[in-house]
Amino acid sequence: MKKIYLPLVGCVAALMAVSCGSNNGSGASSTDGVRNFEVNMTVKSAEKFFRTDVDTVYIDISASVQWPERIGDFDISSLQDTIVSYSFGHDKVADRNIDKIITGYTTDTSFLGEDAKCTAIDSIPGGDDAAPYFYDVTATLVEVNEQMVTYQISAFAYTGGAHPYGASHPFTYDLSRGCVLTADNMFRAGSEKEVLAIVKNCLARQLGVNQSQLENAGVFVSQFTSPGQPYINNDVIVFHFNPYDIAPYSMGNIDVAVYPYELNEYLTPEVKALLNE
Asked: Nearest Cα to 104, choosing from 115, 114, 116, 95?
């Protein structure tokens, strides 16, 4: 059986190459002192079930996307492209039809291999013997305001073995500049070592140990060579690591919270403006 492919892992580099630009106009208005900023979202979801011809294996493929239709008066086409790319693969971006993309995803069983034959069924039978393989993608809105949007894309799969495997990619999108925030555009050039040292120290603080004790706390210190995937949530800069990135599967996802003042001297002016620093 082929190794399952989690789209959000393979497309990061392609999107990081997109530079920030200008995306003027929030579209916010005020009524009797109340500020109005219109946000329209549509929850798009689909789920399909299959039975294979090999050992009567059942498969559950599902997708759920909180799809942004409008965020103020900003052009959010790049945000939509990012959601598609992280969720379903960069090759799907050109399609620009989210319904078609979700349908194609939930009906694609090619990850089982060319010789596998699958039959669509209405539901999976109950009972322990019918425990299905599954392949699931979700795109969830975490936070939105007049300056930025934070999403989390998660993919989980089980096709046999000791346990399921999952990976997540949280990201923050700068509405005014029309781009995803990354370590390359959030921090000043040449500050990589200093930022990494701060992230390590903050992880030690979360785990209740000294930085010198991270290895004893289960962290793969030799693999801890980058600050992970940065995003902003509730005015805190968070650095995300998936299972196996810097720690064993049993420790799950690791999100290291760092207060902006701890990174202030290394932040770019644009990120300081987002955080009102």
From this structure: 95
- Give the tens place of pLDDT for each residue, 132-165: 888 999 999 999 999 999 999 999 988 777 777 8
pLDDT value for 9:
43
Classify residue 135 as exposed, middle or buried by CB count within 10 Å of its CB (0-12, 13-18, 19+). Answer: buried
- pLDDT means per 10 residues, the chain with 277 residues, are 42 49 69 88 96 82 97 96 94 90 93 80 78 90 96 90 86 96 96 97 96 94 95 97 92 95 96 89
Structure tokens at 156: 């989980």
Cross-strand partners of 156: 136, 166
Residue 241 and residue 224 in contact, taking contact as beta carbons nearer than 8 Å: no
- Beta carbons of 45 and 124 less than 8 angstroms apart: no
Question: Which of 103, 101, 62 minimizes the C-alpha distance to 81?
Answer: 101
Classify 182-277 by CATH class: alpha beta
For 1-23+40-180, CATH number out of 3.30.565, 3.10.350, 3.40.50, 1.10.10 equals 3.30.565
pLDDT in tens, 16-36: 444 576 666 677 777 788 989
Whether 81 contacts 67, CB under 8 Å: no
pLDDT (tens digit, 9 = 90+) per residue, 245-265? 999 989 999 999 999 999 999
CA nearest neighbour of 14 among 103, 72, 109, 89: 89
Predicted TM-score of the model (pTM): 0.86
